[in-house]
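Much of our argument rests on the idea that a fold can be written as discrete symbols. The amino acid sequence and the backbone structure tokens for this protein are reproduced below:

___
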Amino acid sequence: MMTIIHSNGSAQEKEHAVTTALDDLAREGARRMILAALEAEVEEYLTRHREVRDERGHAVVVRNGQARPRRVTVGAGTVRIQAPRVHDQRIVHGVRQKFTSRILPPYVRRSPKVSAVLPLLYLHGLSTGDFQQALPVLLGEDAAGLSPTAITRLTATWRTEYERWRTRSLADRDFLYIWVDGVHFTIRLEEDRLAALVVVGVRPDGTKEVIAIEDGYRESTESWLTVLRDLKARGMRAPVLAIGDGALGFWTAVREVYPETREQRCWVHRIANVLDKLPARLQPQAKRALHAMMYAESRAACDAAMHQFAQDYEAKYPKAVNSLIADVPRLLTHFDFPAAHWKHIRTTNPIESTFATVKLRTRVTKGAGSRTAGLTMAFKLLHAAQSTWRRLDAHDLLPLVRAGVRFKDGLQVERGELSPEKKAGKVAA
């Protein structure tokens, strides 16, 4: 069983890993947002001069490939940008015209104005009004900036990308573990909050991938049924294991759509629920005890720690104990999987950590303007994060998991070794 020092060290390592991942996410988000803004700026320029023709009727303002890649330092770090180029043959008052980006002028290597506005543009800039408010920060107070038409075109492209993604075939993919959660956003123009139903999966090579982001009504069973039925209709095979909060309507839905999928309750959610039912003065010691269960090296050790916790708290705080022992078998499912995967499958951290920044941003900016904007924001954020996610540790064991190889307390059961059920049957015989 892990010691308290080991537990604290692990928490620090996790915090460092999350910070690193968020830094990578910010850089990737910055790169993508700059490229998207540059594309929109060029498209607007081409549209504005579309009618200008030479004597042969040819356009005189056209795209001209891409510039050489250059490294640009913004607030999120250094990113590699390859900007689009424009060939402009117009002559105005005897002067040859030339397209120059105001977002990223030639030879610029450092852009504090870009870095200042990127979080707003990327995490929240999904309406024309928000972009227009942000552009003075980016281009200067007296800059006209991108037109509302260009901004609308850009955001429409994102929505089209999301719609195409959410109807793609999944027949060529296999997801062994999936993490599920309902992520809530405030919508400025509506009374009900948006519950984005999110599914993230891991493939046989250990890579994590966003599977679904859908609008759901208060994480209800019917909402999850709609999501899962759609995934199955598009060819998604039943996952081996699903990880999520015990309060989700997901579990009833998954038993109907994928009855063979095993269930793992999220330890972080369970611990928070237990601590919420204890007085503040007892929470530190209770938290240490709960972490000892979460990081136990065997099912027997976890059971013993749970029994001790019940003895210590049941008399005065039965609700806390009942919260802990509710549905215990599904809290301990991870013991039947490779030990190297436990840190990945005990919690819904892949979703929780990614959405921590967007939840903070939507609070500051008072939420997205519409449900569509909220879903598109979630889609863009998760896909930027996806490129920074690490593969699962010991991913070479995933094919064994899919093949049905048995594990006990994290170790592979040798062939020929009887399961406890079979042993009991043999003794009885």
In short: The chain has a mean pLDDT of 79.
